[in-house]
Amino acid sequence: MSEAEKFDAIVVGAGPAGSAAAHTMAKAGLGVVLLERGDYPGAKNVMGGVMYGRMLADVIPDFMTHAPIERVIVEERLWIATDDSAVSIGHKTANSHGEIPNAFTVLRAPFDRWFASKAEEAGALLVTGTVVEDVILDNGRVAGVRTGRADGDLLADVVVICDGVHSFLAKRAGLQQREIEPHEVALAVKEIIALPKETIQERFNVSEGEGATIEIYGTVTQGMGGYAFIYTNRESLSVGAGALMSHFMKTKITPYALLERVKQHPLVRPLIAGGQVVEYLAHAIPEGGYKAMPKLYTDGALIAGDAAMMVNGLHREGSNLAITAGRLAAETVIEAKAKGDFSAQSLSAYREKLQHSFVLKDLQKYQHLPEFIDRHSDLLGIYPDLVNHAVHEMLTVDGMSKREKQKKIWRDLTARRSLWQLLKDGYQTWKVIR
Amino acid sequence: MKIEEKLFLLTYKHDKQTHITIRSNEPCVNQCGAQWGRPCTTFCPANVYNWDGEKIAVSYENCVECTSCLTGCPYQNIDWRLPRGGFGVQYRNG
Ligand SMILES: Cc1cc2nc3c(=O)[nH]c(=O)nc-3n(C[C@H](O)[C@H](O)[C@H](O)COP(=O)(O)OP(=O)(O)OC[C@H]3O[C@@H](n4cnc5c(N)ncnc54)[C@H](O)[C@@H]3O)c2cc1C
User: Fold this and answer.
1) How far is A167 from A161, CA to CA, in rounded Å?
2) Mean pLDDT over the full length of chain A
3) Whether residue A49 has its Cβ less than 6 Å from ligand 1
């Protein structure tokens, strides 16, 4: 074997975490190689599609002028739905643009390609079609990686692990000691449904370049913990659904049948009517939260993004945590390089930076939520039904007085769920999201 | 829309070599059927796993690399590895 090449830093995985890390280090003058197993960055990657401007601007301040973004989100809706009705809660704003939009949709294949190309422009060496198979250990410290290529050993002062959900390298580097449990990951499928942009704008009541999101909670997940979504792209919709692995295992519902049922929902069907399905995609989402996170650093290595369980499922945030964590990992490496110290002790500054950011604060806030969803997904069947029933009653003008209606609603409600149970559900839910 | 039609929309770079193997047929035959109903045959979004009456048949070339079988097999009996560099699914949108 020829002598291995040595870099300041090796980044594994050209998703949002990896490209943010590689860009930040390369810009600071470090010698960085960014390794990606796909033929191009994004070839393997899926997301619903809502990305957040602030965190991306922290890495690429002028991204709005050249990033492949689909639509700026001006309206977000939440449907609490039964099989044939929904109570909709939403927010629409005329002030979403600004210089940096709060949220926008992306398609990951073009987006990841673009983001990785920015890291290249900053000086990182991008190598695609290359699987990192293992870490190279030297006296217990991570000293590089072994790739699937011939003569594929690469050495570096530090390895930044950004290989996504079910990270193989987290295990190889000793950061993750146990197997991930089925209630700690969700599986989501989606379709890209092509429609003319005018049709999308009419159906979602938005202007050119603007878009809307709909999240659907309730019977759409057929008793499983999860949700469905519809996001607008420029000339397509991303329509998807997901639920916890533990629930897929128990119910034997197939993910594609789940999605087909979402598409047949009477409130969804008109929005996608006439559209052509151009791609079908599936991906796992790490949902274990704070308590399921691996160790974040060791001698010579750091881990960021999905590989480290950094997803806030309740707020459908993942890409932004990944970008911020990638950037903070990079800043830690830049400081370590200045000190010439890549020990775990030196790299522990990464955890402090994350702790000062929204990343660990939000993950800590919702740390009890994953178990709650695993155990109480039945609430997603019961409450949408109750809420829809109540609203439907109040809106039905049939000669019954409003006071009588209120009494009837209360009677129906407590017949389905005792007062004690209602209080308990309310208290438990509040406890995990407060 | 059937799953076969959905998968037909995808672009793959096929490898002749499989990246998925069932470690042992034993749990599939003796325990999983009765206790779990062989969930890999339902949760897999690309219909990679099918029970042929004697064993799980693996259509690895359908795999979209979602990684769900790494946690979804109750017996940790699926040896799923990353496809070799450049091979496997190639999403055009993502
Ligand atoms: C259906 C779905 C909907 C989602 N919706 C949203 C949303 O609306 N908003 C949001 O913010 N987040 C969303 N997320 C979550 C978001 O996609 C992730 O949190 C984010 O992609 C994490 O980025 P990452 O860089 O950590 O990992 P990834 O994006 O998974 O990137 C990992 C990269 O590493 C590469 N890789 C893996 N192993 C190796 C190896 N051994 N060698 C070389 N390369 C390797 C992969 O090919 C990949 O490019 C969604 C996820 C899914 C699945």
Assistant:
1) 8
2) 96
3) yes
